[in-house]
Every structure is written in structure tokens, then in C-alpha cells.
Amino acid sequence: MSILNSKTPTGDIANQWSEHKAHLNLVAPNNRDKIDVIVVGTGLAGGSAAATLAELGYKVKAFCYQDSPRRAHSIAAQGGVNAAKNYKGDNDSIYRLFYDTIKGGDYRARESNVYRLAEVSGNIIDQCVMQGVPFAREYGGLLDNRSFGGVQVSRTFYAKGQTGQQLLLGAYSAMNHQIHLGKIEMYNRHEMLDIVIVDGKARGIIARNMITGEIERHSAHAVVIATGGYGNVYFLSSNAMGSNVTSAWKIHKKGALFANPCYVQIHPTCIPIHGTNQSKLTLMSESLRNSGRIWVPKKKEDAEAIRAGKLKAVDIKEEDRDYYLERRYPAFGNLVPRDVASRAAKERCDAGYGIEANETGEGVYLDFTDEIKKKGREVAFANGDQHPSDAEIEKLGKQWIEEKYGNLFQMYWKITDENPYENPMRIYPAIHYTMGGVWVDYNLQSTIPGCFVAGEANFSDHGANRLGASALMQGLADGYFVLPYTIADYLSADIRTGKIPTNSPEFDEAEKSVKDQLNFFINNKGTKSVDHFHKRLGIIMWNKVGMARNKQGLNEAIAEIAALREEFYKEVMVPGSADELNTELEKAMRVADFLELGQLMAIDALHRNESCGGHFREDYQTEEGEALRDDENFAYVAAWEYQGADINKEVLHKEMLEYKYIELKARSYK
């Protein structure tokens, strides 16, 4: 084990980033076209990084497995993006955003990175407005804000329920301009399957053309990984079905440390699971918690009747409803952080008060009745009607909701065939974001020199839990305002290096390794599909490394995943060939990585004898059922070093977390 150096600048935290930038080495404009940079992933982090680096003059190769960068999973983000602009005049500030993020992450994030994130957040909004992102605006034309969980101010900028899509279109437009100018060479439908290291530095990748099956060599002076998170290790998650960990895991196996893999976010407002053949879950934006109230019946017999189809939500009287978040957390109510809201929902459902008609009753209500009445009355008054009828109030209130959340309500209606304007939404927590990822220093560089990691793919600025609307903030901050500065410091030594050749032994070895693995799966004589193993892995992960964990379950998960992995290599069947479009082959390669990662996640969760954020150990909780941290023994980032096929032998390295500007204390939202 070693103690990791984060390369955090010294001095006052408010000046660290500006002082650090002032002393970074530069690459002169006339030398930048001598430098090649590979960017893998074209979501908000990768797309913004590729566009910015190309605009600066570097020669960029961008890779995505989708048919277009517009299809990156960032498009699915609904609710908004945070920034400390204090447009609502409710005393927001850079420090308050910094504080909320550290507290929301349960004091397990690096102070310097989080402060920098808060500091550049305002630039993100300005940049995106200049790109034409259609943020919501108030009547007078100013940008509008709303609240998200874990904060007591309104700092979330949004574009209805399509914020991720609109921000991605901004980054995509910037990329397209550089593609048109010949500064970005775009490789759609290509998947990175290995990184190439020459003389200890990242110098290229091995990629597979997913249409033809051709294996390609691509060289560069630096490689940027921006491929998102690994939530699909659980099979069912809110992630796109193609989202995977392969790029991040491949660099891990070549020397990049993987940090805090057990930190996984459970999102509280997902449409409940409805069947064993379901392939993914659908998220309802956290922004809905601004207006909806979450409840379950107070009486078990009412919950049982609802599950049996004998009662509906509207049949439960107001006095018989348990608004449990408002009851337990009066200061924040329905806007507690995601991990807190998720565990509270699980507790009520485990106690028998769930309302979903499935075996476990896993579901609670998100009810907009009160908001419809409140907003309907406000709109009527604004229109000059001081004595509106109940019917008019309801009509105007529904119109207000439709204007604010219309596409989200439409999506819910189409998926469930239930009218959310008339009946409460049914929701339940599900796997969403991952706070763990590749360990990076302050410059976003991994432990492989020349390999940088941005956005959700790195171990992030969010600690053990991400506050809502901060994923988009981190992705764009990394790509637009951090990486272009820090990567130049590294690249400044390469202006005389020249083109990196691809006919070297290192490229030969990496390509052979990839082809050997592809051929193994094609030639394996198994009898079971890839999904068969992925679903079984997901069940183990959800039941034993999911919303609540304990020592016995984690030990069982480690052993069960190891056995499943062994069976996978013996019994998996991949039809077709490697030299063609073959989605089953793609999945086999990804699930092979998920099996290894899943085992490491359980190992990481087992070693961390505390509860913090999304990592909740049932054997470490307060009398009130809240997370019980151990700051004396676990105030560190756990970064794991690959040691070979036996995941149990990974070596733990620690980055000790020091808090100079925020006091460590128990999180309370009451």
C-alpha cells in the first residue's frame, strides 16, 4: 500500500486554481498541430473536451460506440445543471455550492477539486447560453432556477426536462464545427478495447470498428477517457443499455488505479421494476421532487389493499397518508439528498407499506395534487381572478405543471399507461450514477502518465454521494474549463516527439491481446447467452452490493461472482463471427469486465467498515437508521491496483482526505 499524491496546490483554497493555472506549462499555438490527442467518449465531458482541445489547435481523434455523438448517454439527463450564480437572491455563493457538495458527498470528496468545480460553475452557464442552449427563463427574460435535493437554495438551471439533451447539442455543435474544419477526426461506431503504453506513457488505443469488426491502431501523445459510469454492472439501471465500464477497466488493468468502486448512487425517483424480462429502468427527474410530495399509506392494511388492486391512491384520505420524508427530515422534506430519500423509501417498503403490485411491494407515491392546487390558485390570482372555482384552480394548476414538466409527465404516462395529472406517480429507487471510477490527481491525470480521465469515468468530485444536477456540472467543467489547461502542462514536453508510430511491439502486443479475447468468445462452445450471465450478476449485485450491504452478504457476493465468472468463461455462447457487426460479441466483452469490476466493488464495500453516502453498511448505522461514518479510520479515497486475474489480490492504496475549510460532522437534514 502507498499514500497517493493528489498534487493539490497549496495556499488558500479560493486562489488554488488560479495560482495553479498561472504556473502550468503551455503549448504555443503554432506547436499545437504537432500534438495528437485521443478522446474516448463524446458525452458532455468528452464532447466538450474534444471541441475545446480542437479549437485550441490540437489534432483530435474522437471515438464513440454510438452512431453519433448525439446519442451519448448524457442526453438522458433531465433535471438540470448547477451553478453558483445566485440568480434567485437566496444567498447562494461559490462557498455554499462547495459546502453543499462536500456535505452531500458525506465528507468523502477532495476539497480542492470540489472548490474548483464550484468556482468554474458559473462559466458553464455563460458558455452554454452563448452556444444557444435554451435554458428556461422567467417572465422578465432572466434565466430561471429550481431546487434539487440536499440544498436550501435554487441554483439548478434547466431546459424543461431535457437539460442533458440540450447541453449535449451545444457540445455536439462545437464538435461539429471542429470536424468541419478538419481538426477533429470522428470515429463513430468504434469501441476502445485496450490502451497502448509505450515507455510508461499512454500513446494510443486499440479500437474495434463495430460495423466491420476490423481491429484498428490509433496513436496519440495523450489519451482522454470520458466514457461515463458503470451502473450497468447491476444489469437493471437507469443507464442506456450500451453504457459500460470497458475503457475505464482496460486502463485499470494497465496500471490506472480504480478508486471507490463501491460508491454507487441509488436514485429515488425511478419507475418501479415491472417484470423479469425488463432490460432497463426509466428515471423520472429529481426536479419533480420540487413539486411532488412523497408518501405511503399509514396503515398496512391500506397498503395491502392497494397492492391487491382493491384501493387506489385517491381513496386514501389525507390523514391516512404518511409523508415520511417531511416527517423525518422537516428542514429539507422531499428535497433531501438522493441516498437519504432512497433509503427512506426502502425502509418503508421493507416494513410493509409499499404500494407496488409486485412480490416485494417496492413502490411509493410521488403526488402532485397539492402543487396543482397551489399553482392553480397563484395563476388565477395573477390573472386577476381572486375567487377562482375549484375546477378553475385544477385546470390552471395542471396547465402550470404541463408547462414545467410536460415531457416528463408524458413519458411516465406512455410507459405506465397511468395519467400522472390524475393519479400520483409510482416510484422506487434504482441504480443511477457511479461516484467511483478511475483515480485521478488534481490535473485529472490517472496513474498512467498521459492518460487523463474526465467526467463520470473518474472517481469524481462527489464523494460518496452525488447531489442532483451536479453530474452535468462536473462533466462540462472537466471538458471545457479544467482538462484543456492541465493536459497542456503534460503535452508541453511532446512538441519535439513527432508522430507516434503504430508499428511498435507495444501496439503488436495490445492488438494481439484484443484479438485473442475476441476469438475466445467466438470459438467458445457454451450454451448460455451473455444476458443470462449479466442478469445473474445483476441480481447478486442488487441484493448484496446494492442499497444496503452487510459483511455476510458482501463475502457471499465475492464468492458468488468469482464462481459466476468461472462459469461465464466455460458456458457463454456468442453467435456469429468477429469480423462483422456482432452485438452479442460486444456485450460479451463488456460483461467480462463487469464481472471483474463487480467483485472489486464488493471487496471495496467489505473493507470500508462504515456507512457514508451511497455506501450503506447495515452493521454501521445510527439508532435512527442514518449512515454512521468513521472519520478516524476511513477518511480516505480507496484506490485499487490491478494484480492479475485474481481480483482478490488487488492492492489498496490510500489518498488521505484533509478538511481545512469544512468541519467534519455528522450529516443532518432534519
Write a structural description.
The chain has 670 residues and is of the alpha+beta class. Among the domains are: 163 residues, Flavocytochrome C3, Chain A, domain 1 (Alpha-Beta Complex); 130 residues, Up-down Bundle (Methane Monooxygenase Hydroxylase, Chain G, domain 1). A hairpin with a 5-residue loop joins strand 7 and strand 8. The chain is globular and about 80 Å long. InterPro entries: FAD-dep_OxRdtase_2_FAD-bd (IPR003953), FAD/NAD-bd_sf (IPR036188), Fum_R/Succ_DH_flav-like_C_sf (IPR037099), Fum_Rdtase/Succ_DH_flav-like_C (IPR015939), SdhA/FrdA/AprA (IPR030664), Succ_DH/Fum_Rdt_flav_su (IPR011280), Succ_DH/fumarate_Rdtase_cat_sf (IPR027477). This is succinate dehydrogenase.
A few lines on this structure:
By secondary structure, the protein is of the alpha+beta class. It is 38% helix and 14% strand. The mean pLDDT is 96.
Considering the chains and any ligands shown, give keywords for the structure:
670 residues, Flavocytochrome C3, Chain A, domain 1, five-stranded parallel β-sheet, globular, single chain, alpha+beta, Methane Monooxygenase Hydroxylase, Chain G, domain 1, five-stranded antiparallel β-sheet, 19 strands
